[in-house]
Amino acid sequence: MPPARNLIAFAGLLIVGGCFVVFWNRPTHGYGYTRDASPVYGLPEDASDIDFYDYGYMPNTAFSFQTTEANFNTWSRTFSGISLISDRSGSIYYIEPTGEGHAVSTADGIEYGWTEEDRGQHTLYDRPSGRAYYWSHTR
């Protein structure tokens, strides 16, 4: 019988390998998810029709979803350092689940955000459509 430390080392390798398999096999983009089926965590209770793009180890994450204005405001304020930029209009960078990036703007909405050097988090709510957008970027 092999020494206990060999078994422990082997078990550790299996656990690390399993973590890599789980990480690399999770969805990195998608359309039309429900809140419970979405890999995006911490969304408002009423979040629906969730689209997302998460490049994993890379610096950009973006998602959008349907919600009420009140729930958007409560959810946006959960991010550390975020502050209200405008309660009338806004524009943020957004990455579609296809990986294509573009600006999303609204003339009737709310924008929160923070940026420091090349890091930041931004949320935008479009009142006419009831759609919320999120984009984060980091090094």
Give an account of the 3D structure.
The protein has two helices and nine strands; from the N terminus they run αβββαββββββ. The protein has 139 residues and is of the alpha+beta class. The chain has one domain. Strands 1-2-3-9-8-7-4 form a seven-stranded antiparallel sheet, covered by helices on one side. Strands 5-6 form a two-stranded antiparallel sheet. β7 and β8 form a beta hairpin. The chain is elongated, with a radius of gyration of 19 Å. The N and C termini lie far apart (48 Å).
Would you spell out the secondary-structure blueprint of this structure?
Blueprint: H1 4-25, E1 29-33, E2 48-54, E3 60-66, H2 69-76, E4 83-86, E5 90-95, E6 101-106, E7 109-116, E8 119-126, E9 131-137
Antiparallel strand pairs: 1-2, 2-3, 3-9, 4-7, 5-6, 7-8, 8-9
Number of strands: 9
Question: What is the residue-mean pLDDT, rounded to a whole number?
Answer: 84
Helix percentage range:
10-25%
What class, by secondary structure content?
Answer: alpha+beta
Strand order in the largest sheet: 1-2-3-9-8-7-4
Q: What's the end-to-end separation, in Å?
A: 48 Å
Query: What general outline do the C-alpha atoms trace?
Result: elongated
Low-confidence stretches: 17-25
Question: Nearest-angstrom radius of gyration?
Answer: 19 Å
Q: What string, H for helix and E for strand, traces the elements in order?
A: HEEEHEEEEEE
Beta fraction of the residues? Answer: 35-45%
Give the number of domains: 1
The helix tally amounts to: 2
Biggest sheet architecture: 7 strands, antiparallel
Notable traits:
alpha+beta, 9 strands, 7-stranded antiparallel β-sheet, 139 residues, 22% helix, 2 helices
